[in-house]
Structure to design on (1052 residues):
């Protein structure tokens, strides 16, 4: 049974990783081919760093992801605090349902609904094109919001609800109490929401695709354009680099985490020992 | 904790990119931007050594000529219809577009184009082929390239595809191969309504003419018809084609033909050269039923923010007022591979010789493929003579020293009368709606996938059976507890 | 003093709910308003001058012979893909939850890692593997075997969907499974259940909520996808997502596109409601 489960897991992981392995392999291909491996070369990596266009696109994508998740985190955290405090039940559930919409709706519906809004606004005010960075930013913030809220709300519920009251009674202004008492308590939720938002924003294609003009391109849109013509291996090398970056980050954070856990455990052990010693000392 | 560490890293990354944002915000960019919207693979934009980036050339030329900096923002479309949608919805800033003739007619009719100011496009009179100067669309556009549709195929199939007279028919795209070879799933066709319908319509025109004992090509009953029953006939033909096709493609064709994933496809003649550069097994032929003559032309939409600059761009593409940018334009012409309405390009023996060169160019067939309407045999003889002279003169030759004959425009203008062509005209609104509806219907029908339907049916049945069983056992159990 | 404190409390709680206002404004502007526009575009048509007129014609066009099969096809493909995902993911999630706790974290990371790669690139990579002269066929040729047609059929589309959305199925099932108290399993064994019975009577009922959310997380993107079917199916199996995209990107028919999206949205909401109902009932009775 154990062997069977091992084999099964290995097969699934092979399935999940096959295309990625292919991608990494062919990014080192000498020829401009994605099916015949002719020889090892770093030529596509060189090409990548020479291509102004690709670097521009990469820059756009990163800026968009950071900015949109930052805005979403700020609005979303505030919203989570506010929603948790709401007394009116129907209001609370309405706000919740609405803010979960982008999560439930298929991407394509969210994308085109926003495109329709912007198109109509343009028509109404007789403006020239507003599509571009700002519309994509708005769209990204919108679909990031529910994920931020979802990761903050449980932390608020976990927090001792008398904590802010105590802070207020001790003379904090509401703002002070939020920043000095509550925020540290819910910070893990806020951060995980932020990371989630960045991930989603980096990966999004459909929603950006419907809300941009030809000028502002993110990486997925650029790749989409390429897959319509011919994909050159420099995109594979870019993906490999991004992938390696993510992998490195994850491994690093994993190491940090296990390190921190070990430390925590050591501290807990030490404290336990100390306590034992104290009680033992008392007995003596 | 893991996420904490992750986000710390991300924050660092953010701090690293911040200065870039600040500087790009602080320095309000004084550079004017010109938005050019063109077909994919339709302009040389290579920034390596010995390569030409036409837009960079333009930026340099512009600064030199007008003393102002400008930046070209270039984006591409893969069909006229896609371009139309983008232009109509106004989501993009566009100063210059290069659509095909029938789309230009439509845009003119819908009053979306700006009449051009030929006092800016000073090179027009001298460079544009007189045939194109007479076009009805003249005040709105300046032709960039022209060409014909043809069949691109794997060279090994050459004998199988030709009939007893050595001609090729569009019918091969229906897997009706003269020697009975089966090419199911190796055939591609156009993923845009006009060209896909066009091919069916050429066949219908040809077959009707044969039935009526007329000379094919004298009468167009189908291509620009407003008779819906004739569109239905073409539709039925396309529907019958569906099972032999691998895919409907536009720019995806490069990958599929270059890699050999598909063996037979109709496409624009000029693009054949791009493909044969990568896969030298490919061949090209014009089918006997006749083909489409198209031209793609540069137009300035009414909504353009920089019309003056756009027209200067057009002038640059024509070679500039005194032909000062001609070298870049010829390099572009050789890279793109289409046929050029620019006389300064086509009369240039270096261009012709480069195209017909066996090693660096595309061999002798290049001229007959690109200029099938011309007297290409005479042209080829002339070009070969020139190439020999050039070889002898060595590297520092001066083309003006060439003592031999120069080509004339008469050699290009419709010498080959057997070559049948049709021009797509803009359809009236009702026909357009009807044709689009037929195209939509064609796309919506799918290849057979019965196994998926059956499987999903079984899954749903199983689910229902399970639910019923569950409800029953629950009721049964609840009796006991 | 008491009154003052009450006043202050009121003020405080007002301040706290006010924190949600920016979000509420944002949602109204960018979630509710766009959906209203979808409805508005679906119920209007545009005349030659660009004026909108109220009309049912989009809705009636929908009922015609053209579009219904597309919806039907999309749903069938999505059902098959979801079922395969479930079959693949369930044992995996179970095995994962049985692993050592320290390696579980690592393995889950490995499950999620491919999601960091762009969907388009992953799909394109599959195309290279499956193509007529792709990797598998090259391999077959060198082995002297006949080539197989792997791309451009229904199975390839399903494969694309399964590959891209499988982690969405694994994650929720794993989360639920890892929370099952091992003492339940011990109790079941003590009470005389064999392995199969434990699985069927204890583990499965306890993981239903994970299955339900996994199914919705796979079904929704599968039914609305437009890239995967175009690439893996060579554009021969038009899905509803492809149709919507074409209305916007090349047909310039926003109204039809809006109508199709509206129907898609309603369809998915119905599916979600049914699924939730299903989950609640089962979960409520079984747990």
């Amino acid at each position: 049974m154990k062997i069977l489960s091992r084999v099964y897991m290995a097969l699934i992981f092979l399935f999940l990783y096959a295309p990625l392995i292919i991608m990494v392999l062919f990014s080192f291909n000498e020829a401009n081919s994605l099916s015949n491996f002719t020889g090892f070369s770093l030529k596509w990596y060189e090409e990548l760093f020479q291509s102004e266009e690709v670097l521009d696109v990469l820059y756009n994508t990163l800026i968009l992801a950071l900015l949109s998740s930052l805005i979403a985190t700020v609005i979303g955290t505030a919203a989570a605090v506010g929603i948790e405090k709401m007394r009116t039940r129907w209001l609370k559930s309405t706000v919740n349902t609405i803010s979960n919409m982008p999560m439930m709706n298929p991407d394509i519906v969210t994308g085109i609904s926003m495109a329709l809004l912007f198109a109509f606004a343009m028509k109404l005010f007789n403006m020239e094109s507003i599509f571009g960075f700002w519309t994509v930013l708005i769209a990204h913030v919108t679909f990031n919001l529910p994920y931020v809220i979802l990761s903050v709300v449980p932390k608020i519920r976990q927090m001792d609800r008398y904590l802010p009251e105590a802070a207020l009674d001790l003379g904090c202004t509401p703002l002070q109490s939020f920043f000095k008492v509550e925020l540290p308590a819910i910070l893990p939720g806020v951060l995980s929401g932020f990371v989630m938002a960045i991930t989603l924003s980096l990966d999004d294609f459909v929603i950006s695709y419907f809300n941009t003009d030809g000028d502002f391109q993110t990486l997925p849109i650029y790749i989409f354009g390429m897959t319509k013509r011919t994909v050159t291996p420099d995109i594979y090398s870019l993906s490999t680099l991004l992938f390696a970056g993510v992998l490195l980050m994850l491994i690093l954070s994993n190491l940090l985490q296990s390190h921190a856990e070990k430390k925590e455990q050591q501290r807990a052990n030490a404290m336990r020992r100390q306590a034992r010693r104290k009680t033992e000392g008392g007995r003596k | 904790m893991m996420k904490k560490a992750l986000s710390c890293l991300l924050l660092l990354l953010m701090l690293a990119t911040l200065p870039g944002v600040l500087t790009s915000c602080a320095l309000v960019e004084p550079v004017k931007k010109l938005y050019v919207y063109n077909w994919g693979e339709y302009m040389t934009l290579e920034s390596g050594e010995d390569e030409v980036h036409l837009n960079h050339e333009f930026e340099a030329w512009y600064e030199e000529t007008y003393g102002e900096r400008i930046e070209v923002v270039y984006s591409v479309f893969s069909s006229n219809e896609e371009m139309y949608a983008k232009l109509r919805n106004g989501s993009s800033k566009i100063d210059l577009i290069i659509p095909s003739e029938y789309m230009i007619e439509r845009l003119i009719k819908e009053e979306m184009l700006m009449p051009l100011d030929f006092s800016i496009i000073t090179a027009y009179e001298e460079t544009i082929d007189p045939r194109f100067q007479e076009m009805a669309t003249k005040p709105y556009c300046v032709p960039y390239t022209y060409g014909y549709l043809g069949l691109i195929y794997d060279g090994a199939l050459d004998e199988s595809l030709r009939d007893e007279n050595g001609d090729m028919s569009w019918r091969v795209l229906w897997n009706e191969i003269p020697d009975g070879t089966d090419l199911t799933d190796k055939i591609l066709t156009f993923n845009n309504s006009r060209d896909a319908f066009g091919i069916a319509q050429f066949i219908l025109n040809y077959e009707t003419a044969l039935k009526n004992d007329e000379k094919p090509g004298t009468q167009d009953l189908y291509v620009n018809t407003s008779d819906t029953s004739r569109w239905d006939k073409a539709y039925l033909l396309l529907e019958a084609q569906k099972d032999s096709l691998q895919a409907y493609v536009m720019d995806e064709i490069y990958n599929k033909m270059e890699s050999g994933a598909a063996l037979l496809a109709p496409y624009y003649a000029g693009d054949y050269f791009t493909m044969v550069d990568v896969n030298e097994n490919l061949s090209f032929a014009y089918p006997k039923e006749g083909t489409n003559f198209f031209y793609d032309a540069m137009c300035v939409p009414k909504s353009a923010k920089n019309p003056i600059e756009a027209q200067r761009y057009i002038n640059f593409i024509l070679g500039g007022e005194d032909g000062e940018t001609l070298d870049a334009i010829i390099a572009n012409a050789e890279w793109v591979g289409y046929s050029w309405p620019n006389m300064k390009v086509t009369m240039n023996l270096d261009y012709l010789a480069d195209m017909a060169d066996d090693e660096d160019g595309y061999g002798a067939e290049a001229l007959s493929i690109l200029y099938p309407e011309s007297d290409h045999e005479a042209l080829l003889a002339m070009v070969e003579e020139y190439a020999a002279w050039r070889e002898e003169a060595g590297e520092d030759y001066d083309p003006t020293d060439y003592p031999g004959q120069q080509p004339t425009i008469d050699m290009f203008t419709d010498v080959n009368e057997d070559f049948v062509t049709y021009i797509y005209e803009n359809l009236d609104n009702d026909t357009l709606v009807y044709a689009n509806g037929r195209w939509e219907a064609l796309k919506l029908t799918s290849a057979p996938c019965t196994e998926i339907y059956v499987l999903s049916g079984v899954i749903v049945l199983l689910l229902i059976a399970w639910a019923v069983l569950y409800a029953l056992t629950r009721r049964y159990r609840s009796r006991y507890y | 003093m008491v009154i003052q404190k009450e006043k202050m409390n009121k003020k405080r709680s007002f301040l706290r709910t006010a924190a949600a206002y920016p979000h509420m404004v944002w949602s109204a502007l960018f979630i509710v308003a766009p959906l209203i526009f979808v409805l508005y575009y679906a119920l209007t048509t545009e005349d030659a001058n660009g004026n909108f007129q109220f009309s049912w014609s989009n809705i009636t066009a929908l009922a015609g012979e053209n579009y219904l099969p597309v919806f039907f096809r999309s749903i069938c493909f999505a059902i098959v893909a979801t079922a395969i995902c479930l079959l693949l993911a369930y044992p995996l999630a179970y095995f994962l939850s049985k692993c050592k706790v320290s390696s579980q974290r690592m393995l889950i990371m490995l499950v999620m890692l491919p999601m960091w790669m762009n969907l388009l690139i992953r799909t394109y990579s599959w195309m290279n593997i499956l193509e007529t002269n792709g990797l598998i066929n090259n391999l077959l040729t060198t082995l002297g075997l006949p080539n197989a047609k792997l791309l451009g059929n229904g199975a390839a589309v399903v494969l694309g969907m399964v590959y891209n959305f499988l982690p969405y199925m694994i994650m929720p099932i794993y989360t639920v499974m890892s929370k099952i108290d091992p003492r339940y399993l011990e109790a079941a064994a003590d009470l005389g259940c064999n392995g199969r019975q434990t699985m069927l009577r204890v583990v499965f009922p306890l993981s239903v909520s994970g299955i339900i959310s996994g199914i919705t997380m796979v079904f929704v993107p599968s039914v609305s996808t437009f890239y995967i079917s175009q690439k893996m199916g060579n554009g021969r199996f038009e899905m509803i997502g492809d149709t919507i995209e074409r209305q916007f990107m090349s047909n310039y028919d926003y109204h039809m596109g809006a109508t199709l999206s509206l129907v898609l949205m309603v369809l998915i909401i119905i599916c979600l409601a049914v699924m939730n109902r299903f989950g609640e009932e089962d979960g409520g009775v079984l747990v």
